[in-house]
Specification:
Mean pLDDT: 82
CATH architecture of the largest domain: Roll
CATH superfamily of the largest domain: Ski
CATH topology of the largest domain: Mlu1-box Binding Protein, DNA-binding Domain
Strand content: 15-25%
Radius of gyration: 22 Å
Strand order of the largest sheet: 1-2-3-5-4-12-13
Number of domains: 2
Number of strands: 13
CATH class of the largest domain: Alpha Beta
């Protein structure tokens, strides 16, 4: 029997969660027997993310691993009822439409909120969050981005071409939101396109790098000056981004008529772009 992913919405059920002091509505989908929490992307933008969402150049959002899922008919009806009957139309006259509006995992919204706040603070004052630390290491005259995970600074392996055979032994992969912060550094360095398409990056710890290079090699933790004036990072024109700029590759949802009184929904993934590798000169960083 096909799984009805939006059965909770068909029953008109939704719940509340508090995110950073904000009461936020979520709905539940049942996928492979698991109850997963989703929120409206439109509601997230207008209620939780709006403070810093338009601050950055929209290319920054290529860094993110947020996948959208188009809402079903039942979910559209529920969200419209929530707006008019439970939120006093705080989201205006917006009409939620099946196959057009998107849901995202609530965990991704929480991660994105942190990403925006952390990157904003980093740009404004070069301050590192206690739990999220990233930046650049100047190795002699070469600038290389890093991300800190489990108290270890990790650097992209591709920045050390020619030495990779010896360094591969200690290599690991960064994925998901860990990778998003490293990709943010790629954007700061004007490294584009193909690196954003990859959902992982092979990295090596700074400790392994230091053991590999000669003892006289110098290492300096650094960050660009006046980054708030860089148009490839900051939205200097203060333009409002199109809705959902932070979501990629939405899952298309079919919307069949009820069968024997039951709605059966199916999903199909939008084809991924072919992934290729870019050779990058990490010394061309624009870091002063």
């Amino acid at each position: 029997m096909a799984e009805v992913i939006d059965v909770e919405s068909i029953k008109g059920r939704f719940s509340w969660i508090i995110i950073e002091g904000c009461h936020f509505i979520y709905i539940t989908r049942i996928i492979n027997g698991e109850h997963l929490k989703f929120v409206s992307a439109f509601m997230a933008e207008n209620q939780l993310l709006k403070q810093h969402l338009n601050y950055f150049n929209p290319d920054i959002y290529k860094c993110l691993p947020v996948i959208g899922h188009y809402i079903t008919n039942a979910e559209a009806e529920l969200l419209n009822n929530i707006n008019t009957q439970h939120c006093e139309s705080m989201f205006g006259k917006h009409t939620f439409i099946a196959g057009k509006d998107c849901l995202v995992r609530i965990e991704d919204v929480q991660e994105l909120k942190q990403f925006l706040d952390v990157c904003y603070d980093k740009v404004q004052s070069n301050s590192n969050d206690q739990t999220v630390q990233f930046g650049f290491i100047k190795i002699d005259s070469k600038y290389v981005p890093y991300y800190t995970k489990e108290d270890q600074k990790y650097l992209p392996l591709f920045c050390f071409e020619g030495s990779t055979d010896d360094l591969l032994i200690g290599a690991v992969e960064l994925k998901n939101w860990d990778l998003a912060y490293l990709k943010f550094c790629f954007q700061v360095m004007c490294i584009y396109d193909n690196l954003y398409d990859k959902n992982y990056c092979t990295v090596i710890s700074l400790n392994d790098i230091m053991n590999y290079f000669p003892p006289e090699t110098t290492y300096e933790d650094c960050w660009p000056n006046n980054l708030s004036s860089y148009p490839h990072v900051i939205n200097l024109n203060n333009d409002h981004h199109k809705p959902g700029v932070w979501i990629k590759n939405p899952n298309q949802v079919n919307h069949p008529e009820p069968v024997n009184g039951k709605y059966v929904q199916s999903t199909s993934q939008v084809p991924q772009q072919q992934q290729t590798t870019t050779n990058c000169d990490c010394s061309s960083s624009g870091i002063k």
